[in-house]
Amino acid sequence: MMKFINHRALVVLSICTLSSLGFVALWALRFPPLQQMECLAQDWQTRLGRKTPLDDRFALIGIDKPIYSSEFSDEELQAEPVLRELQNDFPWSRAVWARLIQKLAEADAKVIIIDLVFASPGPGDEELHAALDKYRDRVVIGYNINIGETDRGVFKELLYPPSDIIGNQGEGFPSDDDRLGYVNVWSDFDGTLRRLPYQLTGAQAGSVVDDHVVLESLAARSLRKYGRADAIPADFNSTLFRFTTSPDPLTKPQQFKPHPVGEVLSPKLWKSNYDDGKVFAGKIVIIGPTAAIFHDEHPSPFTDPKEMGGPEYHLQIINAALHGEFLKESTP
């Protein structure tokens, strides 16, 4: 009888082992139904599980429209001439961002992030260059890791701001400049964004720089400027992070409320709504597109709506790191 039981147990164990090996084999081959099941499970955990606490150390300044037509009085335009640039079609002169950096820095903002890529020379570069130099200890701007396909094959490049903005980097790579972080956020195979590599090696980025060079994301650079380099995940893996909230308008009280860029630059509203900038003191401030017309939105694990704006994504990613709120993935 004992031999029969052992033999039966051995058969069951063998079947389970073969099934497990089969599952792992299918997973290793990127079997889509299994990947889809895993993603659905992760999304349910994101929606129903613990959220990263909303942190009052953040502020979002939104590019809420491509042009300001008649929002400013003559008195305001005279007091703050850069407001005239907002009355032109977007993209605006880089003097706008230079002035914002200056105002926020003088208001003692801790970190100022511009979630834009200035990939070519443009009006106002001289002013932006001066602001980036003067406040280099607290400002971060973006560059793009661009990988695409053409008839001739795959091309890879880094779209940096021009030297008119960041200066001559000498023999090093522009990515070595601690004012630059890559803005890329990569989605999973189903198009949803759940994770981010806070840093990459040159080899992981497609050898667009020397393989040993470390590239840091906009989030990682910002954490360093904030004095929390210890919060950056130490590895080079893509890390699942806990979201703070969904993009659902009904959860707006728990979201990062955007402050319109025109409102922040208005002398009158700067005084009445922002207490002459004291609202931004000591904070991590990100500036980026928040209007749908800019198409800077990405599919999130949430539904109704699913799309989340790029600047808010970066805040979610930085917030998760500050609170150590990451999700651990099970092995196959």
Notes on the protein architecture:
The protein has 332 residues and is of the alpha/beta class. It has ten helices and 13 strands. Strands 1, 2, 3, 4, 5, 10 and 11 form a seven-stranded mixed sheet that branches. Strand 3 (139-150) and strand 4 form a beta hairpin. The longest helix has 27 residues, at 2-28. It is globular, with a radius of gyration of 24 Å.
In a few lines, what is going on in this structure?
This protein has 10 helices and 13 strands. With 332 residues, it is of the alpha/beta class.
How does the SSE layout of this entry go?
Blueprint: H1 2-28, H2 32-48, E1 58-63, H3 74-79, H4 95-106, E2 111-117, H5 125-134, E3 139-150, E4 153-159, H6 163-166, E5 180-182, E6 195-197, E7 199-201, E8 214-216, H7 218-225, E9 238-240, E10 258-260, H8 261-265, H9 267-272, E11 284-289, E12 297-299, E13 307-309, H10 310-323
Parallel strand pairs: 1-10, 1-11, 2-3, 2-11, 3-5
Antiparallel strand pairs: 3-4, 6-9, 7-8, 12-13
